[in-house]
Amino acid sequence: MFLTCWFQVDRSAITPAVGEIRPLLADRRCRIEDGLRLRTLSDVIAHLGATGQTALMDATEIRVRRPSAHRGGRSRFISGKSRINAMKALIITNKQGRLLFCGEVRAGSVADITQARDACLVDLLADSIDLQVLADAGYQGLGAQTCGQVITPPRKRRGKHLEHLQWLMAHHEAARFAHSSARIPVEHGIAHLKNWRSLARHHSRRETLPDNLRAVAGFLTDQQTTRPSTALALPASRA
Predict the structure, then answer these.
(1) CA-CA distance, 16 to 194, in Å (whole number)?
(2) Backbone Cα Rg of the chain
(3) Under a CB-based contact definition with an 8 Å cutoff, are residues 78 and 61 in contact?
(4) How many CA atoms are closer than 13 Å to the CA of 221, on its beta-carbon side?
(5) Per-residue pLDDT of the chain (239 residues; tens, 9 = 90+)
(6) Would you list the DSSP string of the chain?
(7) CA 109 to CA 168: how far, in whole Å?
(8) CA nearest 193: which of 167, 231, 224?
């Protein structure tokens, strides 16, 4: 509606134009230093391996329209965690929270670890050496499949005899807290991404969400990597 008023045209003329521009913006993907853009997960893993950086990985859910009644597969968009109709995207940032990858969108009912496996993360990490990816408890199991490159928090210990081992429980909780603290920047990266109104809740067709995500990620990383212009020199003081 805003674009129709701005350009003083009918909505029927704007909709096809948006449909043509959206894939072009989505293809730009995430920008890093020196104008380099990471377009695929393979590019991200290669970049991290070459630079020796530690990656932070998580999945974020975006609320979408509920499929119409009496349609097959209607329940697969219901998230098991938040109990809403959603789709989730795989997010990878560096230790500073800068976005490196946003994509591999799946229905809300898909588990986080399944989404990562579908993205061929295990195969991509097989070709890397000593690359660390910090993830939450939803990815437990990937560590064994990636030779320890995906690091998840220690499992919670339960048992009626554990209360007598206070030192062990304290050490265990300290390890979980340290892991959670190291992962905080990825939450900040997701928050910056979802500050864009179009991703707070997706009102358009579900099929356009992947392109919208990649387009917003491109704009966000452009904004983050663009350095402010140098300040203008102050005029010389009068004698």
Answers:
(1) 25
(2) 22
(3) no
(4) 29
(5) 555 666 667 767 777 777 788 888 888 889 988 778 999 999 999 999 888 889 999 999 999 988 877 777 778 888 877 788 999 999 999 999 999 999 999 999 999 999 999 999 999 999 887 899 999 999 999 999 998 999 999 887 665 565 567 777 788 888 889 999 999 999 999 999 999 888 888 888 888 899 999 999 999 999 888 765 443 344 444 43
(6) -HHHHHHT--HHHHHHHHHHHHHHHHTT-EE-GGG-EE-SHHHHHHHHHHHTPPEEEEEEEEE-PPPPTT-TTGGGGB-TTT-SBEEEEEEEE-TT--EEEEEEEEETTS-HHHHHHHTTHHHHHHT-SS--EE--GGGTTHHHHTTT-EE-PPPPP--TTGGG-HHHHHHHHHHHHHHHHHTHHHHHHHHHHHTSHHHHS--S-GGGHHHHHHHHHHHHHHHHHPPPPPPPPPPPPP-
(7) 36
(8) 224
